[in-house]
Structure formats: structure tokens, C-alpha cells
């Protein structure tokens, strides 16, 4: 996709796009974006406007200005993050692994094109270098233009921004990392990244690129009572086949209208308690976290009975030939 495919849209020119759409309802002038969660379920977000929309080589992209959640990034019709509550998702994605690591200096982010994951990593005063590798230049360009909260992160001399396939980039790099982060889009059929959730990728690419005491963490999709079997339990079980210690944790993200899941993995145990985590937050992090502290991090690892039982009983291992997908379709479909 070149710049010619990026389209700015005024408030009175909103049309459907991707797997969602903006529709005028009744006599009101308010426009709505509909995200299709399942064939029988949609979420609706009231809009002020669509800031821009287009299609890259890899996915449909839209930037919305929503009435309730502020600016929002949508990829392949799926809500990725919103201005009002993205701090919940990104604090949970980044800080647990960095706080549990004894001295993180080198971090590799797979995906993360909006810059929020890098922003959170750069809050840690131990960090010397962050490599952020996103496959889609257009997503990065959109976010650099519209997400003012991340301008400082994009300008940091500790950030190395690479546009490439994360698998190829990791394979070709000689350096190793203390923490590798999977800030990837959900695995949807035809999407750009489902292979980055597979056992072979974790085993042959991720694990060899971790330093001693290194930690891998990935977003792992919906983790609610009704949704955790889509991909969350499978990603957890797949990582258990590769690493000695695997820790799942969850948080409610309002704009997703669901509980969300993340999974950390390492060959070294996670041993800190809440008080020790709070000490590291105080010592290492510049600025104040809005969501996480020691108690909330520890409590986030406790699953309700239904999810806990599913994690224990899950047998599916994520492979290229036997993948699970979130409902919806990527651009290739």
C-alpha cells in the first residue's frame, strides 16, 4: 500500500469498511462503527468521525474518533486499542515481564506499530535498547500521525524501529534479548500473523533469541468465561510445550467488552511477591502506572474456576496446520 491508498474521511462521508462498518441509525446524525464479534453478536461504537481508512498489503486499517473511547485503531474490522483505556492493555502486556526480570536491558517487540508498547518499555530506566518490528509501514505511519501520546517514544534514541516480518527479523539478528514481546494482532484466518503463535515459532525462533533468565510474553486474545477457548487456552498450552514456566494473567478491557489474556513464559521461575513488585516499580519506572501495582499483578494471575479448569485440561497445540482463530477474516480472505 502506498500513500495513495490512505484516505481521509470527513464526518459526512462515512461508509462501511473491513469487517465492521459505520451506519446511520434512525433520525440521529450520530454514526456507528459495528464490530462483528460473532455471527450473532456485534458491538457498536458511536463515532464523531472516521479520521482515515485504507488497506495495506497486509490488512484493512481504520482510525476512528469514537465518542466514548476517543481515538481508536481498527485492523481487519477488529478493535485494537482506544485512547481512553489502551493503558490497561499495554501496562499488562509490558510491565509484568520487565518487573519479573532481574535486570532487563534489551527488548524486542513483535508488532506494536502504534508505539504504545514501546512507550511503556521506555519507562523502565534499566532499558538500553528496544527493537520494535512491525510488518506494516502504513499502521506505523497512521499511529505516528494520530497518536500524540506516543510521539516521545517514537523519537527516543533507545528505540530502533524496523519494518519487517518479525520472524525473519529475529532469525537474522545475532543479538539476544532479555524480554521478547508479542504485541500482535489476534490470529484471524487470512490475517498477517497467526504463524507467530505456533509451537515451532516459539521453539525455533523465540527461545533461541532469549538471554539467560529471558522472558517471552504475548497477548493471547479474549479470556472471558465465554471466549477463553477461542485461542487463549491454546496459546497457554502451546507455550507449556516449549518453556518450563508459563504464567497466564488477565484483565478487563472496557473497549473490548471482555476480559483479555496475556501469557508469560520462561525457563526460570517467576518468584516475586506483591511487595517486591511494588519496590521494583518504585526503583525502575519513570512516571506513574495507572493500572498495575504489585497486588493487581498478583491477583491478575488468578483465574475464575471455568477458565482455570480449561487451562488445566487444554490439549490443543497451536501449529501452522492446526491453528485456532478469532472469529473474523483477514484481508487474504
TrEMBL record:
SUPFAM superfamilies: S-adenosyl-L-methionine-dependent methyltransferases. It catalyses: S-adenosyl 3-(methylsulfanyl)propylamine + spermidine = thermospermine + S-methyl-5'-thioadenosine + H(+). Its EC number is 2.5.1.79. Signal peptide: none annotated. This is thermospermine synthase. PROSITE patterns: PABS_2. One of its GO terms (biological process) is xylem vessel member cell differentiation. Residues 30-267 form the PABS domain. The active site is at 183 (proton acceptor). It holds the Pfam family Spermine_synth. CDD domains: AdoMet_MTases (cd02440). GO terms for molecular function: spermine synthase activity; thermospermine synthase activity. InterPro entries: PABS, SAM-dependent_MTases_sf, Spermi_synthase, Spermidine_synt_N, Spermidine_synt_N_sf. The keyword Transferase applies. Belongs to the spermidine/spermine synthase family. Keywords: Polyamine biosynthesis, Transferase. It is an enzyme of class 2 (transferase).
Amino acid at each position: 500500500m502506498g500513500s495513495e491508498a490512505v484516505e481521509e474521511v470527513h464526518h459526512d462521508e462515512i461508509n462501511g469498511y473491513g469487517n465492521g462498518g459505520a451506519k446511520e441509525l434512525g433520525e440521529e446524525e450520530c454514526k456507528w462503527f459495528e464490530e462483528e464479534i460473532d455471527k450473532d453478536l456485534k458491538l457498536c461504537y458511536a463515532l464523531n468521525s472516521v479520521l482515515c481508512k485504507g488497506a495495506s498489503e497486509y490488512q484493512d486499517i481504520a482510525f476512528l474518533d469514537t465518542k466514548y473511547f476517543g481515538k481508536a485503531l481498527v485492523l481487519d474490522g477488529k478493535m485494537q486499542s482506544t485512547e481512553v483505556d489502551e493503558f490497561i492493555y499495554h501496562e499488562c502486556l509490558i510491565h509484568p515481564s520487565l518487573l519479573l526480570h532481574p535486570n532487563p536491558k534489551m527488548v524486542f517487540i513483535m508488532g506494536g506499530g502504534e508505539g504504545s508498547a514501546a512507550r511503556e518499555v521506555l519507562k523502565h530506566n534499566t532499558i538500553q535498547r528496544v527493537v520494535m518490528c512491525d510488518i506494516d509501514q502504513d499502521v506505523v505511519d497512521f499511529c505516528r500521525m494520530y497518536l500524540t501520546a506516543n510521539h516521545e517514544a517514537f523519537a527516543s534514541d533507545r528505540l530502533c524501529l524496523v519494518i519487517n516480518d518479525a520472524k525473519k527479523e529475529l532469525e537474522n539478528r545475532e543479538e539476544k534479548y532479555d524480554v521478547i514481546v508479542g504485541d500482535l494482532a489476534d490470529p484471524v484466518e487470512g490475517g498477517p500473523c497467526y504463524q507467530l503463535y505456533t509451537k515451532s515459532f516459539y521453539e525455533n525462533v523465540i527461545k533461541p533469541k532469549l538471554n539467560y533468565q529471558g522472558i517471552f510474553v504475548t497477548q493471547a486474545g479474549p479470556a472471558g468465561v465465554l471466549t477463553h477457548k477461542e485461542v487463549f487456552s491454546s496459546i497457554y498450552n502451546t507455550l507449556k510445550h516449549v518453556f518450563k514456566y508459563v504464567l497466564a494473567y488477565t484483565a478487563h478491557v472496557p473497549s473490548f467488552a471482555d476480559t483479555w489474556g496475556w501469557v508469560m513464559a520462561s525457563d526460570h521461575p517467576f518468584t516475586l511477591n506483591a511487595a517486591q513488585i511494588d519496590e521494583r516499580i518504585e526503583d525502575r519506572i519513570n512516571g506513574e502506572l495507572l493500572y498495575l501495582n504489585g497486588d493487581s499483578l498478583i491477583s491478575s494471575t488468578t483465574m475464575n474456576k471455568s477458565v482455570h479448569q480449561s487451562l488445566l485440561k487444554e490439549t490443543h497445540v497451536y501449529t501452522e496446520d492446526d491453528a485456532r482463530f478469532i472469529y473474523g477474516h483477514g484481508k487474504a480472505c
